[in-house]
Structure formats: structure tokens, C-alpha cells
Amino acid sequence: MITLRNIAVPLLVGLLVAGCAAPTPGPGEAGPGGDGSTMTLADGYEPDDLNPLLGYGSEGASKFYDGLYSRDAERTLQPALAAGPATPSADQRSWTVPLRSGVTFHDGSAFGPEDVVATYQAVLDPERAATIRSGVPMLDAVEAVGEDAVRFDLAYPYGAFPDRLTTGILPSEVLDDGGPVADLAVNTEALGTGPYRLAEWRRGDTMIMEANERYWGGAPAVQRVTVVFATDDNTRAQRTAAGEFDGTVLPPALARPVAEQSGLALREHASADYRTIALPFANPVTADPAIRAALNRSVDREGMIDALLAGQGEPAHHPIPGVLPEQVEPSATFPHDPAAAARILDEAGWAAGPDGVRNRDGQPASFTLMYPATDTVRRDLAQAFASDVRAAGIDVRLEGLGWEAIEPRMGQDALVLGGGDPFDPGFKAWQLLHSANAADGFNNPGSYRNPQVDAALDAALRAPDEATRNERIKDFQRAYVADPGMVFLAFLGHSYVSRDDWDGYVEVVEPHTHGVTWGPWWNLEDWTPRQ
To answer: What does the pLDDT look like over 13-49, one tens digit per residue?
Structure first.
């Protein structure tokens, strides 16, 4: 699987970075960060919108919005717009949340229970088409309880329900006119209670955030943040090494040489961010159980991590990450066993052809694998995957495309897909692999269906306590590896480089969403300039 070309790519890029690098100011010196009250960051991704009802900032680290709860560095749920913990009824069918007082939105309007109710009623209303509806399948209704609390009523008991309450809250006035939430002005004009307000957004170029001086948690000391959107990894690495940015996210193989050559600090975070090959069940090749079983045994996960991710990551066999060992079933893995893969295909009637590609009843063992063209990590993983499975007689045709071309084809062609979080991965597994979510956008895009997997995930959602939930999640893993619907490759380590002129950095285990939303800057509102 690992070729000299695979290994040479990071080294070549490192030489290019060294050749174009300009001196970067050291800690405490003037540079992009100025006096410490401003910061310039580069991000490899630009959001499609800034609407929390369409999924923006759903894990609770948005700079523009607050949810009822957020998470600390230990992934523990903490009150944000809530004034304290949520209180369940005896049967866990309803949860009452006390609300923080004295909070205002960026436009100066007061926050209250009507805003929480309006936000979640919009989520529940099918005519408003909030994409985060699948994130609260258990929610039936929400209503105000007096002037300082709200109550959520559930269709079934769900002991981890507060984990679902990190979505940003919108002002009720924004939602008064009805209609699809995709038409709201907040798509491009964020309006929340968060530590920063949106000052300017030039699509395809930059976004400027300014400190919310009335923030309930205290005005941020970093008063102005400019985010430059630079989607090409190599270009972003070169510009960072040349001293244009105070920090950025980079693939591990790029982050390390940039840090070494520029004097920037290297930050490496563990994550629950998986990369998987989503296999469409509408395709006669990838729908075949023998093909899926063979693919999972053909890939050299450890080799991919070592050669392509600079060792930053761990093998993935399903969506439950190793950062939560209490939820991981140790037996639920696929060995790298090309001989076993060959036997599986032989027994299923996939015979090797003269060109080395297997064939059954006139159907070649061949399919297309898409990946986003500007994402070097997904590109490299796609190439390594295709190389590994070609040895088993399966031909994979690669296509690097834009998302606008990828999304309409997810039901017919395979995709290098990313996702996952360390907060409630059992729920993420339900979204990704339960048949109820078949073809729901990036939820189960291949329409995988397995009754045993469905039953285990349903039981996990309805578990009365954490210990029972963990056991049902392990049941899911056992059922899944017996009939895999995807080929999970790795949980990525996230790598960043940044100036080290501020106090407040705290390492955190990250979800799939990273860039400048998470990373070293997940708690940016708490940072202070180093004296």
C-alpha cells in the first residue's frame, strides 16, 4: 500500500515551505497578532451558512451563539444559557432547564424562555426544514415554565438528553415570520448571544469577528479576530510559514515541518473525527456483503496512519472512538488480512479476471470513490484505499470533486466521509448507520440497513442509565462488524500551528468540526495577551 510517492509528498511540501518561508516574529514581538488584542487565523473550510438550525456550531463551540449547555476541556457539560443542570422527571420523559438571567443578544434584545421555545419549535416544525431535526429525534414539544425556565417533553426516555442541547439559540423575533429556516437572514448575518459578533463576512475571502462587550461571561480580551479562508492545504502552509497568520489548521504531515521551520507552536489534539468510505447500497458491487467484508480486511489502517498522517491518529473500525474506552468493544475490529479478503471473495463467486479485477456474472468488482478535491488528507486516504483493495481484485476509480458535485451522487457512488464526536458517539452512530436515517443527507448516505444494528442503536438511545447505554453501544459494534456498511479507516489527530503570545490555551479532544471553531481556539473568549 505505501509507495515511495506516498512518502515523498510531505517531504516535498516541506521543502517548498522552507523555500518560501519568511521569518515569523517570536513570542511577544509585533506580528499579525499586534498587541495581543487582535488575531489573524487561516481556515481550510468556509461555512456554508451561520444558521444553528442548519447545523452551524452544533457541538457548542460557536463564537456567535450559545446553546443551553456547552462543554469544558474534559468534555463535561456546563451551563451556558442554562442557569444550572437540567432536571428530569422520574421517567426521563421530560426535562426542565433553568435559564440564565440578564443575557442579551448582539442586537441588544433580551434573552428569555420565548427564544428557547421559538428555536426548538422551529426545529420540530417539518415545514421549516431544520436540518438538525435528526439531532433530537426524541423531542416532542417544548414550552416555557414561568419566566425563567423551559421544559422539553420527549417521545421516549433519554437519559443523555442534555447532551442534545448545545445548539445555538436564536431570538424569537428572527423566527416569527415562519417559512424554511434556510431563508433566514442569520444564514449570513449571525445574531446570537455568543462572545463574538459578526462584523463582516466577505464570501470566499475573510470573516471578521469582534468581541461582544456585553457578553454574560465577560468581554473577551482578544477583541478582533480575522479569519482568512484558504482552502488549499499546501498554500495555507506556505502562507503560514511566511508569517501571514497567527495560526491555522494543517494536515499532520504539513503542520510539523511548518512549526519547525517557522518557530510557531505545534498543537496536536486527539479527536473522535473518523474518516470512512461510505458505500452506496444502490450500487450492485458495494451492496454485496462479501465485497464489504473483503474491503474491510484489505485496508492497511496502521500503514495509512504512519505514512499519510505522520502517525497522528488511530485505526477506526466503526464510529465509536478510542478516546471513550468505556464504550469500545475490543473484539469489534477488522484485521488487515488480504488472504482472508481473497477467500471471502472466492467463496462469494467473485473470480479474478485477466486484468486482475474480479468479476461475477458479468459484473466487474469496480466502483467510483469521490473525495473533496481540495482536501489532501481525504485524497491521500482515497489513493491508499484504492491501492490496498486493488490487490484484492477490486477496482476503485477516484474522482476529486467539489461538494456541489458530490452531494447529488452520494446514493450511487462511494465517498470519503468525515464525522464523529467524543460527546455522544452512540447517537452519532445512530445518525450514521440506522435505517431510519437512510439517504438523509450525510446521515446514512449509502442507505445501509441492518436490523441487528438498528435494534442495538435503538436500545442505546432508550437506555435508562450510562452503564446500560455503554453496553448497548458495544452490542451495536458487535452487530456492525458482522455486517459492515462502510470501511472506517482512521480517527484523525488534529494538528495546528499557532503563535504562543496568549495565555488560556487548553488542549481538548475534538469532534469532526475543527479548524478555527475548535482547535487551540475552542475557548478563545478566555484567552488573554501574555505580558
So the answer is: 444 444 443 333 333 333 465 678 999 999 999 999 9
Amino acid at 279: L
**What distance in Å separates the CA atoms of residue 255 and residue 222, rounded to the nearest whole number?**
24
| CA dist., res. 83 & res. 88, Å (int) | 15
pLDDT digits 0-9 by tens, 471-525: 999 999 999 999 999 999 999 999 999 999 999 999 999 999 877 889 999 999 9
State how beta strands 366-372 and 414-419 pair. parallel
Q: Which amino acid, residue 300?
A: D
Q: What angle do CA 49, 51, 53 make, to 5 degrees?
A: 130
Handedness of CA 476, 481, 485, 488 (dihedral sign): positive
The H or E element that residue 490 is part of is: strand 486-492
The 3-state secondary structure of 171-220 reads CHHHHCCCCCHHHCHHHCCCCCCCCEEEEEEECCCEEEEEECCCCCCCCC
- According to DSSP, the β-strands at 274-278 and 395-401 are unpaired
CA–CA gap between residue 275 and residue 492 (Å, rounded): 7
The 3 state secondary structure assigned to 422-470 is CCCHHHHHHHHHCHHHCCECCECCCCCCCHHHHHHHHHHHCCCCHHHHH
Do the Cβ atoms of 433 and 457 come closer than 8 Å?
Answer: yes
> How do strand 366-372 and strand 395-401 relate by DSSP bridges?
parallel
Give the model's confidence band at 452: pLDDT under 50 very low, under 70 low, under 90 confident, else very high. very high
Q: Which three cell numbers stand for residue 332?
A: 469489534
Q: What is the dihedral of CA 329, 332, 336, 338, to 10 degrees?
A: 170
Helices 233-241 & 376-390 angle (0-180, nearest 10)? 130
Q: Reduced to 3 states, what is the DSSP secondary structure of residue 33?
A: coil
Q: Model pTM?
A: 0.90
